Each structure stands twice: as C-alpha cells, then as structure tokens.
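Can you give me the bound-state structure? Components:
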Amino acid sequence: MGIHAIRLPDIGEGIAEAELTDWEVKPGDIVKEDDVLAVVMTDKAAVEVPSSVAGKVLELGGEIGELMAVGAVLIRIEVDGDGNEAGEDAATAVETPETAQSPAPATKPEPTPSTTPVPPPSPPAPSPVARAKGTKPLAAPSVRARAREEGIDLRQVPGSGPAGRINHADLDHWTASGGIQQGQITRGANTGVEEIRVIGMRRKIAEKMQISKRQIPHITIVEEVEMEALESLRAALNAKHKGERPKLTLLPFLMRAIVEAVREQPGLNARFDDEANVIHRHGGVHVGIATQTPNGLNVPVIRHAEAGSLWDNAAELTRLAEAARDGTIKLDELQGGTITVTSLGPLGALATTPIINHPEVAIVGVNKMQIRPVWDGQQFQPRKMMNLSCSFDHRVIDGWDAAVFVQKLKTLLETPAMLFVEG
Amino acid sequence: MTDLTCKLLIIGAGPGGYVCAIRAGQLGLDTIIVDEAAPGGTCLNVGCIPSKALIHAAEEFHRITAVNDGPLGIQASAPQIDLAQTVAWKDGIVNRLNTGVSGLMKKAGARFVQGRARFLDGKTVVVSDDDGEREIRAEHIVIASGSAPVELPFLPFGGDILSSTEALALTEVPDSLAVVGGGYIGLELGTAFAKLGSKVTVVEAADRILPSYDKALTAPVAKRLAALDVTVMTGAKAQGFAEGVLQTDQGEVAADKVLVTVGRRPRTAGVGVEELALTLDGPFIKIDKTCQTSMRGIYAIGDVTGEPMLAHRAMAQGEMVAEHIAGHAVEWDKRAIPAVCFTDPEIATCGALPGEIEGTKSSEFPFMANGRAMTCEREDGFIRVVWRESDHAIVGIQAVGAQMSELSAAFSLAIEMGACLEDIAATIHAHPTQSEGLQEACLRALGHALHI
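Here's the bound-state model for the whole set.
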C-alpha cells in the first residue's frame, strides 16, 4: 500500500490558481481511475479533475470555496503498490498505530494496518416531503391509479412516507381536506435563515458586476421601437425556410442592426482598458449574449457577427446558448466580446438599466414586445412595440453619441430593408 | 370473403397485440386480431422463447463438457448433442405456446384472423391470404406490427448469412460462427453456439460489447466470453462474406456461418403506415401517453413505437390501450422498464444507470462476498443500486451474475413502489441466496453493510 498525491493540474490559459467548487468524493470513498474527484472553477468555466489512480481516498486537500494554486496537493489516495509519496507519509502512517498502543510486547509485533478503516459517515437523514422539481412523486402503482381515477394531481399531494412517498392514507387525507395542503391555512412566522456561501460561478458573477458598476459611470437610454415591419419580415423568412433553416428570433436581426450601427460609430464597439487609459476599437463585432444557465449568468460571444449571415448568427447563437446551459462551453467562447446584448424575452419588462460587461463600453437591452396603442395623427392604432434600454460607459461615450446610436438602431429595426441594403 | 366490422382491430399478434386482445376481450370489446403467422409474434416464434430454449440446451451440454475440469469431483464421459432433436424440442415448446395464446384469446372472446393486414384508410384494413381479400372496419385500430432484423447491404440474409431467426433453426452446430454485432441478441446466441462447440468470433463496431451498458456491468460477460474461447473484435467493421471467410477492416475471420445481429427496425412498410401519414419519431410511430398516434382512433404499441424494443413493454402497452379504449382512466406512468440480457453471466437492469441522473449515487455488492454464489461456482458479478442523495429513493438497480433474470422482479418492484434504501435494507432477504446482495448493496449505501 502506498499513498498517491494528486496535484491540481495546470488547467491552461495561464491560470495560476483555481477555486475549488465541489468535491465528488469524501475520505473513505473507493475511486476508480478516471473517476471525477473534484470540480474547480477557473475564470468562468468549471473543470472536472479526474483521478489518475484507483484506490481509497485518504485526505482532501482543501475546502469548497478555497482558492488552490496549480500544483498544490488536491487529494491523497491510498493505492496498491508504491504511491508517489512513499517517503514520510507512509512512515507516519505505519508509526501511528504503534505509538497509540500501550506497551506492546516487543517479541510479538501486532500486524499494523497502514491506515485504520474509517466507516464512511452515514448520509444525512432524508427530508420528509421536499420533492425536487421535475422528479415524479413517489407512489405505488395502486396509489397512482386511484389518484388518476379520482382526478388528483399527485404532485400536489404531500406524502407521509419515507422520501415523501404518497400512500392511500395520504390520498384519503387529501380528499377529506378538500385538496388543500395541510399547513397552508395557518400562516406562521418563518424565522429560519439559510446561509448560502457565495462561491464558484456566483462569486465570479458578483465580482464582475461589482467591477462594472463601481468603475463605469453608466448612462442609460430607453427608446421605443415599432416592430411591425421587422416582425412580418421575420415571420415571412421563417415561413419560407421552415424546416430547413434554424428559426430566426429577434436577436440575429438585432445583431445585424448593431453591426450596421457601429460601422458609423466604431467607438461603441470597443474595449476600454481603464488602467492603461487605452480604448481598443475592434474591427470585428463580437457580440456577447447574456444567457441564463443553471449556474447563473453567462455571456457566450458570437465572433465576427459582421461576417455571418442571419442564419449563421442564429445557428451560432443556438449552439453557444446550449453549450452554456449544459456546461460544455469553452473558456474562449466566453471571452473577447466587444459589445453585449441582454434580452429577457417575454420577461423583458418595460425598461431595464443594463450593466455594461466590463471592459466593453456599451450594452443593448431588449425589453418585452407588446401591442400598444400608437397615435397616427388621427386615431390610435394597435402596433407591436418594443423598448430598447441601452447603457453606455459615460467616461468614453458622450450622451450625444449614445443617443445617435440608439436612434440608428431604432431606424434600422423599424425599416429592416436598411439592414440589408449596402451603403 | 365476407367483410367484417368490429370495435377494436389489432394488427399483429405478438406480445403487445395478443395481450391487448385478451384484455379487450375481458373488457367486453368486440375485438379482431390479425397476423399472418401463428400468434405470439417474434418473441414466441423466433425470439425470446426459442433463444432461451437454445441457450438452456447449450448450457446443459456445456456443463457436462466442462465438469471434468471443475472442482466438484464429478467425472463424465464426453456428451453428444443432436441439434436437430434440440430444435425439434424447441419447436414443440413454441407450438404449445402458440396453441396456448390462441386458447387465451379465444377464451377472452377475441377473434383471430390469419392474413396480411394493410391499411385502406384510418378506419379500414384489408386482410389478404391465399384465398383472397376481405375488409375489416373498426372504430379503433391498434398497430402492433413489431420489428424485423436489420439487414446489412453487404451481408444480405440467405445461405450462410443468418438472421437470429435462421440461427435458431440450425440443425447442425457450425464449426465456426462469426457474429456481426455485439449487442444482446448477438452475444446471447454467440455464447450458446460457443458452448455447443462452435468457434465463435464477435465483430462489434463500437469499442466494446453491449455498448449501451456501463463497463462495470459488461466486464464479467467479456471475461466469460474469453473463457469460452470466443474472440471479440471491437472497433471492427464487417465488409463482406465469401466462401467461408468474413472480411472485416481488421482482417479475415473464418466462418462457416455468419450471424448478423445489428439491430431491429420497426415493421411499418408492409402494413401501409406510410399512406396514413402518421407522425413519426425517427423510423418509429410517435405515440402519446395513452399510445395514441397522431390520427384519432389509431393506436400503436410495441417495437413500432421505439426503444426499448422489449416484449414486456409491448404487453404493458397492449393492456393499457385495451383499458383506455374501454374508457378506463389509464395512461403510461411506468417508472421503469426492466431489461435482461441472457448472456453468461446474465445482466438485469431497471431504471437509471449511475451518473445518468444528477444528484444520484450508486453502491454495489460483489457476489465474491456471497455464500450462495460460491456454492454455485458463480462468484462473478455484483448487484448495484442507484439512489437519490436527497431522499434515498432508489432510481435504478443493475446486476450482472448467474440467474440474475429471476431477480429482476425485485428490481422493478422496488422502483415501481417507490422504495428507498431504508426499505430494502430493512427487508429480510432469504439466506442463502444471491438476492441478499440487493439488501447488502442498500446497507452499503447507508454506510453499514454487514458482509463486506
């Protein structure tokens, strides 16, 4: 038996340390080669660290939330044969039981195990009713059949059994109480406070937001855009290419409009290095798309939106958004944006105050589209209207330029033919 | 021939169709079921049942062959097998079951019509046989036409190139047999012929056999295949066959016969499903929670509706559809469908594999630590439970080991009843049996296994 220490590997990208966000194993666990040991977080991507050996976990090298240097010992694993740490550790491991023994007969040394087996701690007791979202309620087939016949939605019924399992008595109770969950009628004060450590992705988001808001004096402009023409063009294109090309959302059109608008105002498609006081105006328009993922906000970047067609950009957007949501997105797909779009779709509200994605200098916020009455000079007309809420870095962009940019976006979106006419 | 009308017409008398017919008959629905072959479908005629008969015969033969080398102190003289007689015995079982199924349907009041069925429209089917044609009009139609083995264009069935159907009817043990496709059908039959004395080579395109299972589950099977002197070529593609030689991209394989088991495709073409323009899901007919297709009044069950292509799934669907048509409040709410590979050792699975569902963990108990397994000379394999960390609910159970097929009932029952680790851990499991491994795997998950 030997001890094998696995060190935090060089994850690349010139990263010197990474935050430990999850342990997949605990001391006493048996691990196989290639089993995932831990998850560490670099700038934005989560990286799984696999085991290079098979054996038993002896010791974890850090706590969740801790920043670990590349090369630091991540975990110690007891392996068959010699480990890579045979020296001092093995020696102390052998000595410990002997020193712990009271005067042992020197003639007959006890066989000393290299480590005393530690029983794995029992998992925490299951909570009574809490049911994870999306999981089916636990109930025997006869209970499920009865619920169906009586028209009871089992997802609503609290189960009294282990793991929240619903039994016939629970159904009786549910029916007798008129289908009202016990405890809903009386409202008691809830004095519980849950502590949630801000680690990993959430901490990165927090830091990023703080930098943006602290360093950048934001100016936000909200403008109203009439969407009738664009929406009918979009519907026509989608109908024409139904089934053969990806369905177009508003975003590819908006990207197109941004590309056109920054052609005249290159100062908005830029990254401002505020330490060196240098603005980098980029030729290529790399549009970041704020995307909600299970872990929090992510901003995948569509490279060279100026070079892609509507459908190219739509397909790339879908690919990146899916990769961001399922966590397979690569680090370099989350970096290097020159301007960002944030859209909450139907949740988009009337107006927002978007926070610029530092070190960019502008962000375009898309609000909810809805039919609103518009005065056409004689009467009110129902029109599809949508607001744009755009924020700019006021250190390097004047209000005038910001307003010109927003008006340009408005004109392009209201007269979509201009998006595609050269000059 | 006279035209017929009925309330429910079922196309295909396989496990899905005949169960649907029996249940419909019990519920008093005027039911007609059509098939061109004897009732029982692929499963009974050329699938599950005959293959298990052949596997049993091969196992008995092999047991005697190998007993001299074993530790039991038994000596036996070299056994002989007359495969033609084995096949005749197997055919006898099939015939008995054909008759049994016919009797059950008749007793329930369903009418069996032999012939080829073809849709005329959504309410009418033409059934033809050698004597002519007749139309059957029905209020509800259930498509249960099953599946057929996939043919490879460069290895067309016929002559020495066999599908599973022909392999089950061989009357002589081939000296050498190449099995193209290392899924469960190919491995079950390949193992049987290896035990009967054939030199068997398995040609699998994926990087390992039974690629839909995890490596731990398939490792004991791979080990046993090696012990039976079966050559397993992985990452290999068959290319053609001529004069006793199978060409592959990894070299030539000498083979008197070639068994092609590369999957099964839904049998929709012959039934005229295309003309109905039903919504499909890939090559399969798309169904909803009550097995209804996109056309009102037309249902589909079994292999034509997709994976897993298993007889017991079709049976459960058939039963449910009959009840649905009779007006019962039913829908497909099964939590898990068990699956068994009758390889050696057998693999039984139900529910999720480790890592398939987020927030789950798994723990296993090896038969090496099980007394009963030792007394059967079968210490290979293990039982494994997959459980949800938050509430200990069991979401998957897998086992690999001798006779695991018979234990699979415990697996599906546990999951269907919503059992958690504590339930199985606190249930007395008879000693000495391999089933103790299930209890121990749960105890182990709770951190207090007793026998490991």
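A couple of observations. The longest strand of chain B covers residues 132-143. Chain B touches chain A at residues 329-331, 333, 335, 359, 388-393, 416-418, 420, 422-423, 445-448 (CB under 8 Å).
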